Fold this protein.
Amino acid sequence: MKFIVTSSALLKELQNINGVITTNPVVPILENFLFEIESGKLTITASDLQTSMITEIDVEAKETGSIAVPAKILLDTLKNLPEQPVTFSIDEESYSIEINSDNGRYKLSGENATDFPKVPNVSDGFSVEMSSEMLLTAISNTIFATSNDELRPAMTGVYLNIEEGNSTFVATDGHRLIKYQRSDITSDNQNAIIIPRKALNLLKNVLPAENSSVSVEYNLSNAFFEFSHVRMICRLIDERYPDYENVIPADNDNIMTINRTEFLSSLKRIAIYANKTTNQVKLKITGSELQISAEDLDFSNEANERLSCEHDGEDIVIGFNARFLIEMLSNMENPEIFLKLSESNRAGLIVPKEQGDGEDLLMLVMPVMLNNYT
Amino acid sequence: MVRKIIHIDMDAFYASVEQRDNPELKGKPVAVGSPGTRGVLTTASYEARRYGVKSAMPSKVAARLCPDLIFVRPRFDAYKKVSDEIREIFHQYTDLVEPLSLDEAFLDVSENKINIPSATIIAKEIKQKIKEKTHLTASAGISMNKFLAKIASDMQKPDGLFLIPPEKAVEFVEKLPVEKFFGIGKVTARKMHELGIKTGYDLKQLSKRELTRRFGKVGSYYFQIARAEDNREVNPNRIRKSLGAENTFTKDLIDMQEVRNELENILEILHIRLKKSNTKGKTLTIKVKYSDFQQITRSKTVDGWIQDKSHIRSLYEELLDQVEIRNGIRLLGITLSHLNHEEHENKEDGSGSQLILDL
């Protein structure tokens, strides 16, 4: 079997799906790309058993055939080749692969394509349509708040609750919680799934930024995403998502309104002076002034800044992990935000002053305990 | 080659520092710890020890034994400073220094920086330098292994210097009452007495199998030390992997309320140790040893840091659900692991701790 393809075009497709491949896979053959050629089209698959990605590229080929190609060697070769047509010649008896370029000849040994695990189908599934831009926003708004705690598998993914009219994305690691609602997802059904972080990260890297449509099909165990010529199928997290609604306070009526970028820049400066373990910053809201301060007693570092804000409620002093606040505020786009508080040991809420069209974003963050006598 | 090990132990360390820094306390019974009903002493001065006041004793009991006892709150910063000073002295002689806590360390001086062949002379010099630098006294034990050096430092306290020469080691251990053995607590000692084991010689008569059958895993350690053997090296890079406290009971515990009371006492001691070393951890383990020496452990790992008392209490309460009383419990312990020492906490009151959503 033989085919000819442009080196850079092939490299681009491989890089789209290469993120799936793990360094030490359960089955060694998963260190390979699966190449399948049929009617002048090369279909490439990468998989880690949990997640698989498939892409396609047109090639010059007369025959039909398949082979598993060692991913790292192939990628490294293509990365270092100047753009040009390269010829792949595959001996389907010995699984040896020969690549011919203007620069020379490279020979590597592949594996039998039939040993490559079969990618599952989503049968009896439901389907949803969404725009790639919307999905990208939902992923970047939530993914940073997922947990690494393997003991709580549900929280290592993003929860997607699909309902007619409103669909909700939720992520939490127990310290913060993000709830992002969209009213512009087309669906004819109501269901809830938990999508693993790895799959979402991969999507985030390959989803086209320009507005195109993503179709999602899913059943209880797998979800299938398709956009342009790329497909991804991932196993869903089969766990009960924690009852997040109950931890979102409804009565945080101590409300500060502030310019998001000013707040964010101030936090980034103050955080430099915070204790490196706790990242603790202190927010003191009095009248229409927000005082942000931090100290690190180990190094006698301290800093504080004053910002003007609107404030409706009692004076309050509350501590937060600056990293959490910075991450949350960086992932918002709105010019002004509300910080809604109740007590210094209760959850705080960050919400945009004006929500975007068809969206509703809420970020919750738990405080850090402050020393009582300062 | 026979090793030369020195064990240095500061005398009534915290209390002595307090007496040094506050002349009004000199010559008086002083206890470092909080006087509250749930408080536990960390150290008692020698004046207080005459009344039977001991470290790790509940403050209430101590106050009853010695009505004139003066309670002083611990100042860990001051102790840390002295600790650094004495460690600097140790390192003038050898880098093989293994600190056991702020006030105790093993030194391997088999080879030393000033080429003095006599460990006794080195120990004398170290004691002298400690006195000049800190105005505090230390006791030194010298022998061929850690076990013997540790026992030796306890022989002449305070301001003691005691050598167990290699050729006398076996004989020394044979005559040593079991309650003096490092690693044999008062409850185990009592149990040994009941079995007619009063000295190292008696202990040596038991086979390794017999010892492990009666005392569990630690039996093989008893077998070794009864022969004055201990091959453990002085490890200068020993990083503490866990920090805990435990207690063996004179009478086996047979109901949950007793278990809870005892855990509360152990928690007090653990809490002091955590504060003393500025330690926090991610995993809490409770250890339960039954009357038949069967041992179980149950643990729980959390996302944030475990450090404050109420947090530890709520975690062990949760773990208690997995613990049965069976025929009676002879030992309980609480241990914190997955510690982080590179990161220092500023405060000791639970502040700085990240709150968690109730999910």
